[in-house]
UniProtKB/TrEMBL annotation, chain A:
The keyword Nucleus does not apply. PANTHER family: ABC TRANSPORTER PERMEASE PROTEIN MG189-RELATED-RELATED. It comes from Thalassococcus lentus. The keyword Transport applies. Residues 77-268 form the ABC transmembrane type-1 domain. Keywords: Cell membrane, Membrane, Transmembrane, Transmembrane helix, Transport. The chain crosses the membrane at residues 20-40, 81-104, 111-129, 149-168, 189-214, 247-268. It comes from the Bacteria. This is Carbohydrate ABC transporter permease. Belongs to the binding-protein-dependent transport system permease family. It is found in: Cell membrane. InterPro entries: MetI-like, MetI-like_sf. It is a multi-pass membrane protein.
Amino acid sequence: MFPTPIQKRPRAAQITYQTLVPLALILWLLPLLAVGLFSIRPLSDFTNGNYWGMPSSFEFFTNYGKVFFESDMPRYLLNSLLITVPTVIGAVALSCMTGFALGIYRFRGNLLIFFMFIAGNFVPFQILMVPVRDLTVNMGLYDTKIGLVLFHIAFQTGFCTLFMRNFIRALPYELIEAARVEGIAEWRIFWYIVLPLMRPAIAALAVLIFTFIWNDYFWAVVLTQGPDAQPVTAGITSFNSQFVAQYHLMSAGSIVAALPPVIMFFAMQKHFIAGLTLGAVK
Amino acid sequence: MTALTLTNVNKSFGEVHVLKDINIEVEEGEFVVFVGPSGCGKSTLLRVIAGLEDATSGEVHIGGDLVNNTPPSKRGIAMVFQSYALYPHLNVFKNMSLALKQEKQSKAVINERVAKASKMLNLEDYLERYPSELSGGQRQRVAIGRAIVREPKLFLFDEPLSNLDAALRMNTRLEIANLHDTLAASMIYVTHDQTEAMTLADKIVVLRDGRVEQIGSPMELYNNPVNQFVAGFLGSPAMNFMPAGFVSEGDPRTIGVRPEDLRLQDDGGLSATVQHVEHLGGDTNVIAEAKGTQITARLFGQHAINQGQTVTLGYAPERAYYFDKEGHRV
């Protein structure tokens, strides 16, 4: 068998492996652990330069309590949710349809349109920063959640279409033809045949887009300001006041802000099913 | 009334001319088999009839109506795909009833038709199962059931047995034959297997390179092939062809003799060296070589013939077929 299982390698190799793996793991998780540790320190630890030692006192409840009850964090979290969820729904729904159209129908310009969807992904968004800001200002959408949502949907649909179109292309085409011969209308084919088979793709894409949008900082800063519309990624910086950086609260806020994508992943996990089309053909 | 009429149907994919002037008539209740080697255009022809491909020119009439511009769903046909194409997320009952539901049939009608079809196909115990939980033969029957419940004017089968193993293939073949008798529906069946064609068909259409070579009943084609291709395609083992000048010097004709028409004789025939013997019990197939040509003889019963042995083969001249240089029968 290749590669040789670690149990069957020489003892020296096993020991090296067993020491290096935990080491690599710790190294990998170090930033996260540091943030976790920071989030339970009192502010005084930072002023005294005690970054890496034992916390002088454990302030888990104080810090997280402050984040939830004495700051704008809940507001920012809600904003994030109100931005991310509509974006996920919008981008996934749109790309299901574009993917179906581009994956199933053979028409002139199909590839051209498909390439344009892909090409959109290659435009660096730093270039778009100023025009998009001007656009939202002119449309009266600057510093609104809806403006951010619309922009995110427009920007994510390109990638989503690429993903969905390729997934639909991989479905057995006979299924579509069989349905057509059976007299099932095209939109019903989409709804009753293709959509159920796309469940794993929809789940995967939803998690991916949710994480993208939830973690977006760039556009949040460019298109919004203040607790009315800003999502949590941008909102965390409000713990940095003019004279004091409240690292302990920023850390606690960051941990809180990082949780929803993780929860999303586990919530969607049962939909990641391989072989949904098993038994369709042959 | 004819169930299907094809008039001068042509189909090209870009530069490639796949179907060339196809003219076929299928009578009401007839079982017609399109047969030909792979790549001859038989599946494309079926797809043109189904409406999944458009004919480049020519007319397709189903049940007397011109359907060139009618979508597949409105043609009154049902198609069984080679790969079954079952909806994997629906159980057997829903697979069979989906189309009826779309037609807005009442629940009673749906239940009745599905019950009837599943009884006919022995699927009653599997209605709750999903396609992935079925064997190949059962999936094939579901695919057929899905066609039956719609009570179409015309059934189209696209190599439905090619994914089944030999024993199952024979059973399913019988089932399809029975089905044709029970439903008395018009059926078109595409296959590359000449045995399926011979056993199932009322009428066989032999296709080669997008052209109809010959149309007729199985025995007509077997006994009266118009050319060397049809003669060689039907029958197993295939007809022996002895090139020009093989039997008598200067004869420009190719001589075809069916393996079962060859017999062993003591003298005055073809002298051939045995290369291989297939003992089938009921028959013995002798594959021998004479003057660089391989000849297969199918002898009735069991014969003690050894490899390397020289045998003399003869045939009755009236059982031979003669073909000219172009392969036409003369």
